[in-house]
Amino acid sequence: MSNFHDGVVAHQFDDAEQQKETVNLGMWSFLITEVMMFGALFAAYGFYRFKYPQAWIEGSNYLDYLLGAFNTAVLICSSLTMAMAVHAAQHAKRKQIIVFLILTIILGGVFIGVKVVEYADKFEHHLVPGHNFSVDSPFANQVELFYSFYFIMTGLHALHMLIGFGIIATLVVMAYRNRFSEAYYAPVEMTGLYWHFVDIVWIFLFPFLYLIGRG
Amino acid sequence: MSTTVEASHHSGTGENYLTAGYGLKSWLMTTDHKRIAILYLLSISLFFVIGGLFAVLIRIELLTPAGDLVSADSYNKLFTLHGLVMIFFFLVPSIPAVFGNFLIPIMIGARDLAFPKVNLASWYVFTIGGLFTFAVVLAGGVDTGWTFYTPYSSTYSKTAVGLTAIGVFITGFSSILTGLNFVVTIHKMRAPGLTWFRLPLFIWAHYATSLIMLLGTPVVAISILLVFLERVFGIGIFDPALGGDPVLFQHLFWFYSHPAVYIMILPSMGVMSELIACFCRKRIFGYSFVAFSSLAIAVLGFLVWGHHMFTSSQSIYAGMVFSILTMMVAIPSAVKVFNWAATMYGGSISYETPMMYAFGFLGLFTIGGLTGLFLGALGLDVHVHDTYFVVAHFHYIMVGGAIMGYLGALHFWWPKMFGRLYPEAWAKLSSIVIFIGFNLTFFPQFLVGYLGMPRRYHVYPDEFQIFHVLSTAGASILAIGYAFPVVYLIWSLVRGEKAGPNPWNAKGLEWTVPSPPTTFNFDETPVVTEEAYDYSRPVEGKVV
Amino acid sequence: MFSNFQIFPEVASSMASKVDAFYFFMIGVSLFFFTLVVLLVTVFAIKFRRKSEDETPKPILGSLKLELIWTIIPFILSMVMFAWGAVLYFDMYTPPADAMNIYVVGKQWMWKIQHPEGNREINELHVPLGTPVKLIMTSEDVIHSFFVPAFRMKMDVVPGRYTTAWFEATKTGEYHLFCAEYCGTEHSEMIGTVYVMEPGDYQDWLERSAVASKSMAEEGAELYSQLGCNTCHEQETGARGPSLVGIHDRQVQLMTGELVKADDSYLRESILSPVSKVVAGFAPIMPTYKGQVSEEDVLKLIAYIQSLSYETAPSDIEATESERTE
């Protein structure tokens, strides 16, 4: 128990190794709860997708798949910069950590910016459920249902990204204050896991929402 | 479990977790799992009283067939709030958040949970969720039933559904955080020598419970959020007018809420194993069967949600699959009961208060479990579904099972938590009063349920009255029974005899440390060298 | 208040006695296990009570044999329960082919019921003794549940779809009808009475209570022409819509190539959301009638379409005649 109060290893742990394993397991457990949460939405989505295939295709066709593809690319890049930040943290390269974290935020910001443009477009074209929704389609009602899923799923995803911005910004401040070392970089690593998870959710959302009509 | 550390050498005059700080801040900013347990104990006791008051009003209203005490609208709000408060703010957190929090680290020889700050955060999240519920009451209440069935909740109800949904959504996260903390702690923080099969069964039960919290709660959280979005922003996926399926909500809801039943009962089963082992001075018969039955319940519990929907127009064949799985989930519970009974064989049984609750649990849980089979059996469920038969069944599990376990735990570990003994005679008397009151309250409900009295009825036909009169009479006895412990437990804090580290001569790491324990539980990490409940070896800190 | 004290509900349908028999079996099994547990616990608690403070009982680890016994025996019993329950359930929800239809619409907070003969009632249901009755039910608002304890029959009534249930009454009398699914403020007053009558009395009642001398199908026929359905749904080749004669409960092929049964639910969907499932060979041009027709109207239209079988004597129904211009 030599590390009992040295600040890096918290009091409840015996050593850094135990702390590292524990934090890792905690993060993965958290991600499992996230999978369950999005999983419920995907299950409901799948239920209606099979019930109203035509409406789903039609709804999907109103989405701009080029913007969606662009955003997918942006997000994959941000995953790369996040991974680089974690790598830099493992080697305690303070400057690199800060640069890559800021790049991640910028790329994420581009994603959200495109999302804002898309959302604004939906408002303009009356594609927002519960807000004078109107499409000229025999399946108008079910298309509205599709757009409910679109807004709920992308909205929840965007909310996760915004939370991510907050966490990453905190990491930038921590890195600036030189809080990380080769022995202690768990916060960066765990945020990396979170960020990759958020990206993976989008990798599923993109085809399910944008591409189903373009087979 | 004896340890290499002679922990009982603490004099008991030294500082303990209660005296480690006195200011309000020392409590509100604490990360000590034991103090957080006390915060939870206070919060859920408050909610139990509130939920109980709602129940009292419901029972008085039902004394007569006409709706003469409260209006139909108020009645609907009363049973909704009773359900919401009791389930989300009392039963789900009860044993895990109080006794799990207090005991898991000590039982596994750790200084704290894996994430103490997360633990504190979970209490704050719980409190914020609770404040929303108070706000709901101030906003005029909510009348959807705790089940939030769409489209009533999403479109038709004129009450504060949105506020309630947010409250429940938030509270769900406290449960997720607690479950996450327990899973990680049990995996990674066990003392040297404490292998999985040396763990107290209380830990196994909490491990299974935590898995359900982790996997199930996110689903109910998102479902209730969907109701909120549909109601407040019109972004709806259950609205029949758009081709949405209101029955889909039921699937999502019960995917969590059936396993949630096991969140409420599994910890109580864990408590039973501890009580029975201690007061029989014997290792639990078939330890590994009892341990694995907890996991089996947790896993199978996720596959049976459709048994709440046998009359919902889901396909007959789906009903059959859910029914056969429901029958299977009953088996591990039966295995537990038989193992507990077998543990008593050849034991040295004493009848202290906690054991009285264990006896009560065995009888009541058996009735609750067996009547669960009635509801899992398709052809019979069609008749009794949504009647008082269901109400009786789940109160036998929730009150007869979970609350008996909670009270058993409270009496068993009270001396450990506060270092004081309560008056045994009063405690025994109240356990008997509670047992009688409980049965008188809920047994008649099986009968009136089979007669066809639907649940959530404000007024009812005359011929059902006699059963309601009996039930209300029982409820008054039950209320008195619950009032006793409040008085003598508080009295014991001041006047109670000092409890040594091990007043029950029990096995287990928590009985090797002083009562109340110190902030970091152990001066040195204990090393475990024996199986759980090995009463053939000398008990430490024994009272002579 | 104690005058009509009873423990078991009336047995008034062919299903009720079967459910009761199963109930008694379940009570028997439960009593056996409950007694067993209580007996074991009591006997052990007395026999092995602590006699001295220093007792150290001999440890017993467990017994695989016992574990197997108390796993396998309850398992077998539970499978019996499952099978028995499943058979009953199947029968309960599989109406006989010759059952007479009665249409039920639930709304906050009343039951609206219509007989094929056209008679309408609210919160009352008159049925003949010894005749299988199939209920075709839907809701105008939230989920309700049609529950007659004396028949051991319950089925949720769900907005946006038809649910069905059936019973055959075996005893004349008056029985409770309850809404079993919580549906809002006056849920407990969404109740009614089921009158089981001798078939002769039932015929009398039908005649006595007939408001207009129109059957449901006739009312449907009127609506059919009012709404202009007949302008497209003709039997001639080249009509804009498919002929509806004899379509009820037959297989139809859709544009997508899929085969579906044109049952009540399909017909309802085709009236309210016509282009969802268009019959092969026709264009998706039919406008929706959502908002123009109530759930009760839809049921009337379906009753009319059902009456349009090839065997129907055309003279019975006016509108049919204009249809059948072959």
Note down, in words, how this protein is organized.
The complex is a heterotrimer of chains A (215), B (544) and C (326). Chain A is an all-alpha fold and 215 residues long. Chain A has a single domain, classed as Four Helix Bundle (Hemerythrin (Met), subunit A) (Up-down Bundle), CATH 1.20.120. Chain A has helices at residues 16-51, 53-61, 65-90, 94-124, 140-176, 186-211. Chain B has helices at residues 24-28, 33-61, 72-91, 94-107, 116-138, 152-156, 161-188, 201-233, 246-280, 287-300, 316-344, 353-376, 378-384, 388-418, 424-451, 465-495. Chain B has 16 helices and no strands. Chain C folds into two domains: 9-39 and 63-213, Immunoglobulin-like, CATH 2.60.40.420; 216-323, Cytochrome Bc1 Complex, Chain D, domain 2 (Orthogonal Bundle), CATH 1.10.760.10. Chain C has helices spanning 14-47, 64-92, 199-209, 216-226, 264-272, 295-307, 318-323, and strands spanning 100-107, 110-114, 120-122, 124-128, 132-139, 144-148, 153-157, 163-168, 173-179, 192-197, 251-253, 259-261. In chain C, α1 (14-47) runs antiparallel to α2 (64-92) and α4 (216-226) crosses α6 (295-307). The termini of chain C are far apart. The model of chain C is unreliable at 312-326 (pLDDT under 50). The interface between B and C is large, with 98 and 90 residues.
Write the layout of secondary structure elements.
The complex is a heterotrimer of chains A (215), B (544) and C (326).
Chain A: H1 16-51, H2 53-61, H3 65-90, H4 94-124, H5 140-176, H6 186-211
Helix pairs in contact in A: 1-6, 2-5, 3-4, 3-6, 4-5, 5-6
Chain B: H1 24-28, H2 33-61, H3 72-91, H4 94-107, H5 116-138, H6 152-156, H7 161-188, H8 201-233, H9 246-280, H10 287-300, H11 316-344, H12 353-376, H13 378-384, H14 388-418, H15 424-451, H16 465-495
Helix pairs in contact in B: 2-3, 2-4, 2-5, 2-16, 4-7, 4-8, 4-14, 5-7, 7-8, 8-9, 8-10, 9-11, 9-12, 9-14, 10-11, 11-12, 12-14, 12-15, 14-15, 15-16
Chain C: H1 14-47, H2 64-92, E1 100-107, E2 110-114, E3 120-122, E4 124-128, E5 132-139, E6 144-148, E7 153-157, E8 163-168, E9 173-179, E10 192-197, H3 199-209, H4 216-226, E11 251-253, E12 259-261, H5 264-272, H6 295-307, H7 318-323
Parallel strand pairs in C: 1-5, 4-10
Antiparallel strand pairs in C: 1-2, 2-3, 5-8, 6-7, 6-9, 9-10, 11-12
